[in-house]
Amino acid sequence: MALSNVSLQVPGQSIFGLLGPNGAGKTTLIRIITSILQADSGSVLLKGEKLNRDHILNIGYLPEERGLYKKMKVGEQLLYLARLKGLKRAPAVQRIRIWLDKLDMLEWIGKNIEDLSKGMQQKIQFIATVLHEPELIILDEPFSGFDPINVNIIKDEILDLKAKGATIIFSTHRMESVESLCDHIALINKSEKILDGPKKEIKHRYRTNKFEIDHIGVLHGLDQKYQIISSEPTEQNRFHTVIKIPDDCNPNQLLTALITLTEIHRFSEVIPSMNDIFISKVSEQNE
Amino acid sequence: MNKILLVVKREYITRVRKKSFIVMTLLTPLLFAGLIGGLLWIATTEQSEQKVIAVIDDSGLFKDKFQSTDDLNFLYLHQDVETAKTNFSQLGPDGLLYIPKIDIYHPEGIQLYSESNPHFGVINKIENTLEKEIEYLKMKQLGLDQQTLENIETRISLKTLSLTSSGIKASNAEATFGTAYVSSLLIYFFLFLYGVQVMKGVIEEKYNRIIEVIISSIKPFQLMMGKILGIAAVGLTQFLVWVLLSFLVTASGMSLMGLKQDPADLITEAAPLGSESAVLQEAAPGMWEMMESIPFTYVMVTFVIYFLGGYFLYASLFAVVGSAVDSDADSQQFMFPITIPLIISIVALGFVLNDPDGQIAFWMSMIPLTSPVIMLGRIPFGVPFWQLAMSVTLLIGGFIFTTWVAGRIYRVGILTHGSKVNYKTLTKWFFQNY
Hints:
The complex is a heterodimer.
Chain A: E1 15-19, H1 26-33, E2 45-46, E3 49-50, E4 59-62, H2 74-84, H3 89-102, H4 118-130, E5 136-140, H5 148-163, E6 167-172, H6 175-181, E7 184-189, E8 192-198, H7 199-205, E9 210-216, E10 227-233, E11 238-244, H8 251-259, E12 263-269, H9 274-286
Parallel strand pairs in A: 1-6, 1-7, 4-5, 5-6
Antiparallel strand pairs in A: 2-3, 7-8, 9-11, 9-12, 10-11
Chain B: H1 2-16, H2 19-48, E1 51-57, E2 72-76, H3 81-86, H4 88-91, E3 95-99, E4 111-113, H5 120-141, H6 146-152, E5 161-164, E6 167-170, H7 173-208, H8 211-215, H9 220-256, H10 263-267, H11 276-280, H12 287-292, H13 296-324, H14 332-354, H15 359-364, H16 371-378, H17 385-413, H18 423-431
Parallel strand pairs in B: 1-2, 1-3
Antiparallel strand pairs in B: 3-4, 5-6
């Protein structure tokens, strides 16, 4: 998979969502960042320094296609992977115990990987990724194979790592985790970057000027410049209505106009989900 | 370098700890010893069973000439051969030898009847006795007296000695041939066994998908070299344990069989015997002497060198196969061309052992792909030093080359999943620039 002219800036101590449909080139990009592949042209800078093999200790990588040596014991396996990163034996052993304890896995330290459930193996894999306390953590679909409880445990750990100063690049197509975790996002499709920026800003950019209102009684006599997209009864004379306001109006004007017409129970802006933005951008480019 | 050592250690420890490794390493020499011991035991018990041969001598020429021994008891019968034949099973002998009236210049019609096929040794013994007796009779007719006949009789047992620069050594053609054959076969199995282990290891990492985690920490080449070296160490461990156990088992086995000898003598190289007279001393040709005629240390050292050289050469090729396929089942098509030179070596081994200094032997012991098996077949017969040096140099050059080529293909192969791989793809990977 070739990438063309993809340029990204990942701010430090943040969670950066790398999004894109299957085959967009996310994994290739990540493999270049982790020095598994060499880019034909261009470069990767880490804190202003050109990426080299010495940075390996500073990077933690959880690939999408992952696995462990089935016949190796949990503790030995983590120690081996940590030492390959360059960690010394004693601190590695100490950290392994701390992490296993944290994720409730300490009793499994002497078991073979093949005796663990899939979710437990994923936890071990996550520990292996962060054990050497890297500054840059790259997680490719970190939640695949986890049940909702474990997803939350891992989410908390990711937020904790960020709080401790790590920068996290997070590749996924699960938009709900992007909503809850990412500060910045970049969208890649067909080997090109099509969207990039802070999540809030992007959401702001893609706002639709639509508002949803829960109110009592049928809405009559609203000014023609407000466009009623839909209005549906919910329960007992209550209605759920979506209204689009023109660009030169602000929500206060709409609210003022509505107050005289109906009893308002809820008023909120319709914010596009990352899912909507993702789908609309990708299909826009594909056409 | 440090990281390669980590990989080496992991590869070594996980393999050596496996139950299958321990069982195979400890049991194989015992199995061999048991097999040889069993054969010897059968051979000795068979000998002690005395066979009875009934003799009907109508010619009258062989009266009392068949001497009974431990193995054979001759029983002269004085009755008609036809009655003897019909009563054969009641009589109870193992065989019935019938000698009709014969002309000593045309001795025909002598027959041996038996229910089961008679033993080769029995036939030999009877034929020898008959021939000797008839020859004796002929010579007697020619007028030679008993005294002259005894003087004519000569017995020679040829003692073979080999002339080398370090002096004269007792040599033994059978032992040399055997050592050559066994060490060639052994290295063939070792190259195969451990080469395939490298391949399986690579496939395991690729199939498990742990590969990407690891090569984000170390270079693919480091991983490949670490694996190859670690498995080499496993091979050497197994070889050393086998050698030690074989010596212990043979030594204890022989002392049990009454051959008193210090086992330590066996491990040290058979020292060149000081003077010719010492060599020529008449000694019973025993197993120890036979073994001492082979320079074991020399054979073992060259074995280790050729095992390592050949292994590095083949292991990197096997690593390429492992990196190119997604599962064991797909590996067949690529394994075939790798195994061809090994199989050719084994086929050619017969020629080489019969003519260890011939053209085929020379060239095949120079080509790196065939030299491990072929050179080990030549070594017990003695190889000029320059040939050995050249062969080893070529082998080292060969494995550096294959390792380099393998490394380039391997780094692409291990990350490629699910695509159909053929030789064109492999070439493309080799020239690929990342």
